[in-house]
Write a structure and sequence with these properties.
heterodimer, A: 424 residues, alpha/beta, de novo design (two linked rop proteins), 17 helices, 8 strands, B: 889 residues, Ubiquitin-like (UB roll), Rossmann fold, 5 domains, 7-stranded mixed sheet, 38 strands, binds flavin mononucleotide, binds iron/sulfur cluster, binds FE2/S2 (inorganic) cluster
């Protein structure tokens, strides 16, 4: 594949610390922006992204162009905001970090174009607390962009002005949920907000706001620069463009790769990650971060498309595969995840706040030999309690996905603990 | 309208409403925690789950939270579906994971929403077997207990305290299952409405600390409908008694007045009723106890000859009228401060003949632009401040409507508030507790505040007189305020007696009169619970009594400490000249000390009476429990000579005597009122120990006291169903033991009480007055001279509540407040003391100084209503000197 097949990582090279502004411009960086502000109306930019069928890379796959088109645009005095979601605390996910650390200008250009499309004059990057290196590189890149007139008043001599502020999180998983993020950015507690109204209507400070994932925004300059047709040609299946897929666990080469949407899991797992390490075999995997359901070895041919993964019984999520091997106990793995989710519950709604710690406590009891068979029913009950629409936001729903599928696929492992047959 | 189907039955309901209150209004027992009728929906507790079927074929349906679901035509729902019931049951199980299972020792027990909901949901067995998470409790001051382990994290407390009441010092900390609702550190809760936490919290986290000191279960309290005695707003209360002691006061819902909330003065000010300072026996010359018969006779003898009667703004219409009848109109004096009487007369005149509506608190909340002239409302009429704070939200509601956001979606509507706030302007002598909600503020002397008001009126209507020589800043502000008021559909002007300025009251009228809106409103705060009623009755002035005393020689003083009304030397002279002074009062006072005949009066809790609040609404308070012998209602002492008139007859006679008061007989039903031939019981049916309570005195159950004066009995027996909601002593419904039961008594949730709210309006807008023309000159400070401005305080300026220990604990020590430049001219700092000498003479008073940058130079702010500051008259000039010998702290 040549560089045009990997637009997102084209400037990232093994011997390069990160892509500087010069590196970025050398491959055509900021040309998309130039084209957008000079040649396209905001509505046209929205339309292009809509036509490209770019789907959000933050986990839910919501079409980005459609989201933008929901922003009320009639009132010129209306203040609007764009927010880049760089919270990335989903276990097993490190794609945004890579993009931010290695090619910060790509995000900045994507944000400026997106802000232009919705006519936002202020944008924020909400960054995970621990991403210190990314923060440094972003700050530097923002200064460079301001110096070169890509940011600030009357960008590139157009009528469009924008500034981007970097906000580093205080460090909670829930801050990645876009409305909790908005509360956090306003200095409030990071509880999710009531929806509707959606952020595109009433978001930051009560004003129309678009929140997009870092990776989503990184796609935008390329769509504008090379066009919709080119972009649509990049996908292998129903979805278009490329995506950063990752793999962690006992694979030979854990890592991150830019591949076309629709690449089968097998290719990511076997060709890119090199399959399992010697002495380990595959028991299952979470396809898109911790809050997705297990897939089994026989499902490796599922293509990484939103619909296809959903049909297989899981979610594409962030596209970061977490591999479960045969020497790792699935019950302990799920316990570990539930401890994370229980701790990260924002505390707003009952099933999540009080249900997750109970689920974790039951799993703890099970692995420590205090489990009872009826606990499995209680755990199933809890997964139902935290079903779709039952909790205030999707954290709890996501938290239940690995548990619920583990109860289904690895029930014997749970039972062995309880009946005293021990681990494994 | 919408037709919806719930469990197979069709109902006509309002489209767009939140489904939860709609279900509650239809009488369904649906569980909930985080929703509150005054706080709206936030979807946090997930307890109100019901099933919503997608279409007629849908069998499975989808679980939705009723509180977050707007009602739409054709909706098919189930509350009873197994999936929904199971969810609600299991959700309670989750809430109970960390909850202590010790209801018997919890102060919420018996009126606990969590208990009710747990039972309702069917949760019985507990599966969680781990340890419970525990919290530390905090000291929150004399009003409120804190037992955080009982918390179910419904977020109501912080939503009420912060979002609704504007408090800053109660927050939620932490996250996941370790959320903590409290202060940053131990300390007194600052907000003046903190007591509502007791009722807002659905569990036993926040409970009434004053109640703890003499606790009883809700079902063991005897209660009757009552009205707050501690300011002029007339909030409705439900006082509870046991063993002859008043144990607590809680809110009594009135859809027009206080709604769900009281202020802390009203809730915690009841302690005076149990005070050791109570006058409990008739006495002669402050030392000799006499029998009630002798006292009664004595009073009758005095009344047989010409006697002067001094009425009281904190006594009922009936008591005042009885006195007036006994002494005769020409010998009846209102017992108000001279200026206060003039102000109240002006207010009555404006309300009755000014042609502008005086709003209820509910209507205040609907105002879309407000101008306050000369009041720090939080201190002069506390509950009004809470309503005014809500009025600011109307622009956000409006904005939400345009975005298709339902008004009951609390958080989204509040998110609009940043750009959309209905304007509230406050012109006051110094910073007020409502400033944080204000669009703009103005500081000036009462004259300057009045001048601003006159300027606004002139800008609104050029026909209104214009103040001469207004400075540019004030003029610009007047124009800006006028602009906002002009655009408003429901503008409201607020003024009152606290500024003690005629000009301010007249300016307020001019502004209101100049408003173009049809729904313009004008409200005045008045200081005491019957100030307006007394002024409507009308009568001569205290000053005139001071003159008349020479001819009469006998004085009957009704529930009044005259030292609060006039300079001490004048009162001294008056009482001296009188020779024979009878005082009928409930608490000892400087005046009572001087009585030759002292008669113990019942408090609001021990007798009946009608009060008129600032709106012009007549409301009756009913005796909660019999006063201990020989204490009796003032009206009873006074009417004893009038062929022992009944209370109802007295009310009727009063109504007949004063055309303006004709309707007071309709304030509440009379003694003849029954339900199905039965009177209404003051005691709940579960009232315990009746046969045992007095067994240590007499083994046989004593005869219940009879109450010939009201529709209530001192008993558990009587009418059970169909009692008019406004007359229900105890709000209770099957399955609903907490105050949330009030849902069952309303005409629409959060609306009016079924059968009508309590009380009757005596004044409706009619007529019109001419523009007021007497515009004062601007205030110019005179060198080395200060103008006294009396500043009321919610805790400490009202006579009765100050005798309640927890409230007294919260009262500030009296201060002399100075502008920083004045302070430096006097070389005093905060904590130093100043000697204050009034031009009118009298002793020098020494008070500690506080520096207040918002107070204009040349003014001296003084805490009102305190013993130490009683000698000061509003607007009096004084000189100041740094007090020596005081070490600056
Ligand atoms: C608990 C939770 C955590 C989330 N964390 C992230 C995150 O770290 N980064 C992110 O982009 N989206 C995250 N999301 C999704 C966001 O809410 C939102 O959908 C996304 O940022 C929208 O961007 P996109 O449309 O470009 O994907 C999270 C959602 C939930 C419920
Ligand atoms: S599911 Fe509820 S408690 Fe959990 S993070 Fe979302 S809002 Fe908070
Ligand atoms: S303290 Fe009471 S009101 Fe506050 S969250 Fe806990 S249960 Fe709810
Ligand atoms: S506002 Fe006035 S009437 Fe209402 S509770 Fe407070 S003191 Fe009583
Ligand atoms: S009452 Fe509906 S979620 Fe709390």
């Amino acid at each position: 594949m040549d560089k045009m097949d990997k637009p997102l990582t084209q400037n990232i090279e093994p011997d390069r610390l990160f892509a500087t502004l010069a590196d970025y411009e050398r491959t055509g960086g900021y040309q998309g922006l130039r084209k957008a502000v000079k040649e396209l109306q905001p509505k046209e930019v929205q339309q292009w992204v809509k036509d490209a069928e770019l789907r959000g890379r933050g986990g839910s796959g919501f079409p980005a162009g459609l989201k933008w088109s929901l922003v009320p645009m009639d009132d010129a005095r209306q203040v609007r905001y764009l927010i880049a979601n760089g919270d990335e605390m989903e276990p097993g996910t490190f794609k945004d970090r890579f993009l931010l650390e290695k090619d910060p200008h790509q995000l900045i250009e994507g944000m400026i174009i997106a802000a232009y499309a919705i006519q936002a004059r202020t944008a924020y990057i909400f960054l995970r607390a621990e991403y210190h290196l990314a923060a440094r590189r972003l700050e530097q890149a923002l200064q460079e962009a301001r110096a070169k007139d890509y940011l600030g008043e009357r960008i590139l001599n157009s009528d469009f002005s924008l500034d981007i502020h970097l906000h580093t999180s205080a460090g909670r998983y829930i801050c990645g949920e876009e409305t909790a993020l908005i509360n956090a950015l306003e200095g409030k507690r990071a509880h999710p907000r009531t929806k509707p109204p959606f952020a595109v209507v009433s978001g930051l400070w009560g004003r129309p706001t678009v929140v997009n994932n870092i990776e989503t925004l990184c796609n935008v300059p390329h769509i504008i620069r090379y066009g919709v047709e080119w972009y649509k040609g990049l996908g292998r299946g129903a979805d278009h463009g490329t995506k950063l897929f990752g793999a962690s666990g006992r694979v030979k080469r854990p890592g991150l790769w830019e591949l076309p949407m629709g690449t089968p899991i097998r290719e990511i797992f076997e060709e890119q990650a090199g399959g399992m390490q010697a002495g380990f075999s595959l028991r299952g995997l979470l396809p898109g971060g911790a809050s997705t359901e297990f897939l089994l070895p026989e499902q490796l041919d599922v293509p990484m498309d939103y619909e296809a993964v959903a049909k297989a019984g899981s979610r594409m999520g962030t596209g970061g595969l977490i591999i479960l091997d045969d020497k790792t106990c699935p019950v302990k793995m799920v316990l570990n995840l539930e401890l994370f989710f229980a701790q990260e519950s924002c505390g707003w709604c009952t099933p999540c706040r009080d249900g997750l710690p109970w689920a974790a406590a039951l799993l703890q009891d099970i692995v420590e030999g205090r489990g009872r068979l009826e606990d499995l029913e209680t755990l199933s009950g809890l997964t139902r309690m935290m079903g779709l629409g039952h909790t205030f936001c999707a954290l709890a729903l996501g938290a239940m996905e690995p548990l619920q599928s583990a109860l289904k696929f690895f029930r014997a492992d749970f039972e062995r603990y309880i009946t005293g047959a021990g681990e494994g | 309208m919408a037709t919806i189907e719930i469990d197979g039955v069709q109902y006509q309901v309002e489209a767009g409403e939140s489904l939860l209150p709609v279900c509650l209004a239809l009488g369904f027992d649906l569980t909930y925690f985080c929703w509150h009728p005054a706080l709206g929906s936030v979807g946090a507790c997930r307890q109100c789950a019901v099933i919503h079927y997608h279409d007629p074929e849908d069998q499975k349906g989808r679980l939705v939270m009723a509180c977050m679901t707007p009602v739409a035509d054709g909706m098919r729902l189930s509350i009873e579906a197994e999936q929904a019931r199971e969810f609600r049951r299991d959700n309670i199980e989750l809430l109970m994971i960390n909850h202590p299972h010790d209801c018997p020792v919890c102060e919420e027990g018996g009126e606990c929403h969590l208990q009710d909901m747990t039972l309702m949901s069917g949760h019985t067995t507990r599966r969680y077997r781990g340890r419970k998470r525990t919290h530390k409790n905090q000291y929150l001051g004399p009003f409120i207990n804190h037992e955080m382990n009982r918390c179910i994290a419904c977020y109501r407390c912080v939503r009420f305290y912060g979002d609704y009441a504007g408090g800053k010092d109660l927050q939620v900390f932490g996250m996941h299952n370790n959320v903590y609702f409290g202060r940053f550190e131990d300390g007194v809760l600052e907000n003046e409405f903190s007591g509502n936490l007791v009722e807002v919290c659905p569990t036993g986290v926040f409970t009434d600390r004053t109640f703890s000191a003499h606790y009883a279960r809700k079902w063991d309290l005897q209660t009757a409908p009552s009205v707050c005695a501690h300011c002029g707003l007339g909030c409705n209360t439900a006082p509870g008694e046991r063993y002859g002691e008043l144990r607590r006061v809680i809110n009594r819902y009135n859809g027009e007045v206080n709604g769900y909330f009281l202020c802390d003065r009203g809730r915690f000010g009841y302690g005076f009723v149990n005070s050791p300072d109570r006058i409990l026996k008739p006495r002669m010359h402050d030392r000799m106890d006499i029998t009630p018969e002798a006292a009664q006779q004595q009073l009758c003898d005095w009344l047989a000859d010409r006697a002067i009667g001094i009425g009281s703004p904190r006594a009922s219409l009936e008591a005042n009228f009885a006195l007036r009848s006994r002494v005769g109109e020409e010998n009846f004096f209102l017992g108000l401060g001279d200026n206060e009487q003039s102000l109240l007369e002006a207010i009555v005149e404006i309300l009755r003949h000014g042609g502008i509506r005086s709003p209820s608190l509910r209507e205040v909340e609907q105002a879309d632009a407000v101008l306050i002239l000369g009041e720090d409302v939080t201190h002069s009429a506390p509950r009004l401040a809470l309503s005014l704070r809500q009025s600011v939200r109307n622009a956000a509601f409006e904005r939400a409507r345009s975005l298709n956001i339902a008004p009951w979606l609390d958080k989204p509507v509040r998110e609009q508030q940043i750009d959309h706030r209905s304007p509230l302007f406050i012109a006051s002598v110094c910073a007020t507790r409502l400033d944080d909600a204000a669009a703009d503020t103005y500081r000036g002397s009462p004259e300057d505040i009045a001048r601003l008001g006159f300027a606004i009126a002139h800008d609104l209507d050029p026909g209104a007189p214009e103040p001469a020589g207004l400075n540019d800043d004030a003029r610009a502000l007047a124009v800006a305020i006028a602009d906002c008021l002009r655009q408003a559909r429901r503008p409201l002007v607020v003024a009152g007696t606290a500024s003690a300025s005629h000009a301010v009251i007249e300016a307020a009228y001019n502004v209101a009169k100049a408003l173009p809106a049809k729904d313009r409103q004008l409200t005045f705060t008045v200081p005491e619970c019957n100030s307006l009623g007394l002024a409507m009755m009308g009568g001569r002035r205290l000053r005139q009594a001071f003159e008349a005393v020479r001819d009469a020689g006998r004085v009957i003083i009704l529930e009044n400490d005259l030292y609060r009304r006039a300079p001490a030397w004048e009162v001294d002279a008056f009482l001296q000249a009188a020779g024979r002074v009878a005082v009928i009062d409930c608490l000892s006072s400087k005046t009572a000390e001087k009585a030759a005949l002292l008669l113990p009066a019942a408090t609001f809790a021990e007798t009946d009476g009608t009060l008129v609040n600032n709106e012009g609404r007549a409301q009756r308070y009913f005796q909660v429990y019999p006063a201990p012998e020989p204490v009796r209602g003032s009206w009873q002492w006074l009417s004893a000579g009038m062929d022992n008139l009944s209370f109802d007859a007295l009310t009727a006679a009063c109504a007949e005597a004063f055309p303006a008061l004709t309707a007071i007989t309709q304030a509440a039903p009379g003694a003849g009122f029954t339900v199905d031939g039965m009177k209404i019981p003051r005691q709940p049916r579960r009232y315990s120990g009746r046969t045992a309570m007095e067994a240590h005195i007499n083994i046989s159950e004593p005869q219940r006291p009879v109450d010939p004066e009201t529709p209530f009995t001192f008993s558990m027996e009587g009418a059970a169903a169909d009692v008019p909601a406004a007359l229900e002593p105890i709000i209770w419904a099957p399955g609903w033991n907490s105050n949330q039961a009030v849902n069952k008594f309303q005409d629409g949730i959060g609306g009016h009480l079924r059968g009508g709210d309590y009380g009757i309006r005596l004044i409706e807008a009619s007529g019109a007055l001419d523009w007021f023309n007497a515009i004062p000159d601007a205030f110019k400070p005179v060198k080395s001279q200060w103008r006294i401005i009396l500043l009321p305080h919610i805790f400490g300026s009202e006579e009765l509540s100050l005798r309640s220990p927890p409230l007294a604990e919260r009262s500030p020590s009296p201060l002399a407040m100075l502008n920083p430049s004045d302070a430096s001219a006097l070389a005093v700092q905060a904590g130093d003391s100043v000697e204050i000498s009034c031009f009118s003479g009298g002793p020098i008073v020494v008070l500690p100084v506080s520096i207040e940058p918002s107070l204009p130079a040349g003014l001296l702010g003084i805490t009102a209503g305190r013993q130490e500051t009683q000698r000061f008259r509003q607007s009096e000039p004084a000189t100041l000197k740094k007090a020596l010998g005081e070490v600056p702290s």
